[in-house]
Amino acid sequence: MAKNQFTKYETARILGARALQIAMDAPLLLKIPEEELKIMKYDAIKIAERELNEEVLPISIDRPMPDRREEKLRAIKVEKINDEEIEAKEKEVEKEIEEKAEELGFAPDDEDEPAIEDTSSSEEQ
User: Fold this and answer.
1) Are residues 18 and 70 in the same domain?
2) Is the model's pTM score more than 0.90?
3) b/e map 74-112, b = 16+ CB within 10 Å
């Protein structure tokens, strides 16, 4: 069994708890169109199952382990980012680093600028 996978018993417990919340008029965590709600017949269990499949439920499971430790299991929401967004984020971070370097007095490494030689050792002799 994968580490981040719920057992069928945990899934049943999560769905039951969330369905009860939905039945008691808790706000939905997903924006579900009215047509889909009519198809589901406003069934709280089906809505809870959809929320679980979309990984928007903020529920974690504490599993007691045999060696008296507990394993905390939480559904991980994977963000889907395309290459353009990654490149834009990298450029933004690089720009922030350059700005902070200038504030601290570090000059950017340009090969066009001549290197400053240490003249103090030649003056002492």
Assistant:
1) yes
2) no
3) ebeeeeeeeeeeeeeeeeeeeeeeeeeeeeeeeeeeeee
Is there a contact between 14 and 6 (Cβ–Cβ < 8 Å)? yes
Q: Which structural domain, as residue segments, surrounds residue 26? A: 8-74
Element (H, E) at 61: strand 60-64
Q: What are the tokens at 59? A: 């529920």
Q: What is the pLDDT along the chain (125 residues), one digit of tens a residue?
A: 444 688 899 999 999 999 999 999 999 999 999 999 999 899 999 999 999 998 898 888 888 878 777 777 766 566 666 777 778 888 888 888 888 777 777 765 555 555 555 555 555 55
Asked whether residue 36 is assigned to any structural domain, the reply reads yes
